[in-house]
UniProtKB/TrEMBL annotation:
Name by which UniProt lists this protein: Aminotransferase
The keyword Iron is assigned to this record: no
Catalytic EC class: transferase
E.C. numbers: 2.6.1.-
Length: 386
């Protein structure tokens, strides 16, 4: 019966990150730097509020867009932090992680034949959805542009089929973000055109080198801002994301959301309310820790003679392995087998990720130190062989 499966579904594959994660599980004593998930527990007060929610029978469906106080808290949060103006009545949707926000946005705005511009390398969560909608992903090579998708690069790839531009910043896998000026330039280029911006800001609270700015501030009418609690509050398993869009757009996205999931989990919504109100600055403590780790890993890579761009945020480094003249998959597999360190091959992040590996530093200092010691020994042996 497999021949009856939708052709678009047959054409997509499981994410390369997960595939590689499963592949390296077979090696014992391996240190894995593969997964993009905070290593801190969810803050205690957030966990307590969820328990209270259960005890108080907050266990039924909520409004499709999320319970009102939470929507209000979400709007206040992005207003206070990023000067965004959204109406809690009809311009915000509480979603099942940022993933579902991406899905319902793309399914609302895409049609067969349209093109979606996105940076390369890029998080692998967008391309399959674009393809399921019959759209054409157009990756733009950012490797010679400091991994930044800037206005001039975008301009060269615009066609009359371009429907959407995906901007993830800070970026997974590179950690690079966009500055206020760079975002303004993109906004000026796109303003008035029949093009949407999907602005994935899931790492906004984990920005180290500059204050995070949202393009929603400059191009509100054409932008869908996506954020969530997975990374900022170490809540990946609670599955809470947020989508902000002008009401003319949000009302259509809400229909897709309603028929897709009805609403996000009521208990997780309770926890989210606590996170955004009493815990609005919870990410700060984690960000301080990530920043220390970033400097440590960056310095060690630098010392090893490995080229790497210093990230602005998130918890990834994306070093170049061009000097070893191997595909990123072969390099990562050999590293796992011989040195017992797991990283993600850059090719998991579009063809433009080839020649790089992604290292996550959402791991303890001890794990990072041991992983880098192993990497150092492995690389010095490898250099002698080249
Ligand atoms: C750039 C980016 N967007 C979205 C997501 C999905 O986030 P969530 O777990 O909230 O669905 C991730 C997860 O790694 C990500 O890196």
């Amino acid at each position: 019966m497999e021949h009856l499966i939708n052709q678009n579904v047959r054409n997509i594959t499981i994410s390369g990150i997960r595939q590689f994660f499963h592949l390296v599980q077979q090696f014992d004593d391996i240190i894995s730097l593969t997964i993009g998930q905070p290593d801190f527990p969810t803050p205690d007060h957030v966990k307590e509020s969820a328990k209270k929610g259960i005890d108080e029978d907050f266990t039924t469906y909520t409004h499709n867009a999320g319970f009102f106080e939470l929507r209000e808290a979400a709007c206040q949060f992005v207003h206070k932090k990023y000067q965004l103006e959204y109406d809690p009545h009809d311009e915000v949707i509480v979603t099942i992680g940022a993933s579902q926000a991406i899905d319902i946005t793309l399914r609302t705005i895409l049609e067969p034949g349209v093109e979606v511009l996105l940076p390369g390398p890029v998080y692998p969560g967008y391309e399959p959805i674009i393809r399921l909608c019959g759209g054409q992903p157009v990756h733009i090579d950012t490797t010679n542009n400091g991994f930044k998708l800037t206005a001039s690069l975008i301009e060269r790839h615009l066609t009359n089929k371009t429907r959407c531009i995906i901007l993830p910043y800070p970026s997974n896998p590179t950690g690079v973000s966009l500055t206020e000026d760079e975002l303004k330039e993109i906004a000026n280029l796109i303003r008035g055109k029949n093009i949407f911006i999907l602005s994935d800001e899931i790492y906004s609270e984990l920005t180290y080198s500059q204050k995070h700015t949202s393009i929603g501030q400059f191009l509100r009418e054409q932008t869908i801002v996506i954020n969530g609690l997975s990374k900022s509050h170490s809540m990946t398993g609670w599955r809470i994301g947020f989508l902000f869009a002008p009401k003319t757009l949000a009302k259509h996205i809400l229909k897709v959301h309603q028929y897709n999931v009805s609403c996000a989990s009521s208990i997780s919504q309770k926890a989210a309310y606590e996170a955004l109100t009493a815990g609005e600055n919870d990410a700060e403590k984690m960000a301080v820790e990530y920043k220390k780790r970033l400097h440590y890993v960056y310095d060690r890579l630098h010392h090893l003679g490995i080229q790497v761009i210093k990230p602005d945020g998130a918890f990834y480094l994306f070093p170049s392995i061009h000097q070893f003249q191997q595909s990123s998959f072969d390099f990562a597999l050999e590293l796992a087998r011989e040195a017992r360190v797991a990283v993600v091959p850059g090719s998991a992040f579009s063809p433009y990720g080839e020649g790089f590996i992604r290292l996550s530093y959402a791991y303890s200092f001890e794990q990072l130190e041991e992983a880098l010691n192993r990497l150092e020994t492995y690389i010095s042996k490898k250099r002698k062989l080249i």
